[in-house]
């Protein structure tokens, strides 16, 4: 299996969580990061994720992972979804709540899509993780994206109010990374990989 991976992302908070999650468990995986702003297309979350990973592999010339996070409102059939970053920037936490005024349900899910490419020209493989919850008025530190307005079901806390260890055991990102980890561990050891 791999014990090192290149993660291409421009988001320092994502990187911190990915490193924390992958350092846990029986086979820790070391992350080398590259901060590149990669253009993101429109489409389904899987199309957006695969395209970004293809571009990342071309740019870095190596095997790499990328990650896309979507915040999906049940009342809006899954939108804003992969476009959440732009909504967050333009309307903020209050706007993310106001968008649901008049709708009977505040249900939402956080969807994390990791894409892994074995290198330039190698078709990316997708690993998804989903955590269900609801959109609430902001509570907790406003450090990472929309953490303060997303309350996972059954917790009574927003992501922002949780200690990082708690978020990292139930988050969309954690669930996707568990699948990626299982896949990487199942790969045969080759010249490019290092036996652990
Ligand atoms: O370079 P990349 O990896 O694309 O980093 P990004 O910040 O552009 O990330 P996305 O394109 O996936 O957009 C996701 C948006 O959701 C935010 N976000 C991602 N994960 C989050 C989490 O676990 N909690 C709160 N906000 C999150 C993030 O700050 C972005 O505004
Ligand atoms: Mg992005």
From TrEMBL:
Pfam families from the UniProt entry: Ham1p_like
Top-level taxonomic group: Eukaryota
Listed Gene3D superfamilies: 3.90.950.10
Cofactor(s) required for function per UniProt: Mg(2+); Mn(2+)
GO biological process: deoxyribonucleoside triphosphate catabolic process; nucleotide metabolic process
Chemical reaction(s) catalysed: dITP + H2O = dIMP + diphosphate + H(+); XTP + H2O = XMP + diphosphate + H(+); ITP + H2O = IMP + diphosphate + H(+)
Recorded GO MF terms: dITP diphosphatase activity; ITP diphosphatase activity; metal ion binding; nucleotide binding; XTP diphosphatase activity
Root EC class: hydrolase
Residues binding Mg(2+), per UniProt: 40, 68
Binding site for ITP: 9-14, 52, 68-69, 144-147, 167, 172-173
A Gene Ontology term for the protein's cellular component: nucleus
Keywords, ordered alphabetically: Cytoplasm, Hydrolase, Magnesium, Manganese, Metal-binding, Nucleotide metabolism, Nucleotide-binding, Nucleus
Places the protein is found: Cytoplasm; Nucleus
EC number(s) on file: 3.6.1.66
Keyword Magnesium on entry: yes
CDD domains linked: HAM1
Cofactor: binding details: Binds 1 divalent metal cation per subunit; can use either Mg(2+) or Mn(2+).
Family: Belongs to the HAM1 NTPase family.
Quaternary context: Homodimer.
The protein's name in its UniProt record: Inosine triphosphate pyrophosphatase
């Amino acid at each position: 299996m791999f014990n090192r991976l290149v993660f291409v992302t421009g988001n320092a908070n994502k990187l911190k969580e990915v490193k924390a999650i992958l350092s846990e468990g029986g086979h820790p995986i070391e992350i080398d990061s590259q901060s590149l702003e990669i253009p993101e297309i429109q489409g389904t979350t899987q199309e957006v994720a695969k395209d970004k990973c293809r571009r990342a592999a071309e740019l870095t010339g190596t095997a790499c992972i990328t990650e896309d996070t979507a915040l999906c409102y049940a009342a809006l059939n899954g939108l804003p979804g992969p476009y959440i970053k732009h909504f967050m920037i333009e309307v903020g936490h209050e706007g993310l709540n106001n968008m649901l005024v008049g709708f009977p349900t505040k249900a939402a899910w956080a969807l994390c899509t990791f894409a892994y490419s074995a290198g330039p020209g190698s078709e990316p493989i997708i690993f998804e993780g989903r955590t269900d919850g609801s959109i609430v008025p902001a509570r907790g530190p406003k450090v990472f994206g929309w953490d303060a307005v997303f309350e996972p079901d059954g917790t009574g806390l927003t992501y922002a109010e949780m200690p990082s260890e708690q978020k990292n055991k139930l988050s969309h990102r954690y669930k996707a990374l568990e699948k990626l980890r299982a896949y990487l561990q199942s790969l045969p050891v080759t010249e490019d990989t290092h036996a652990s």
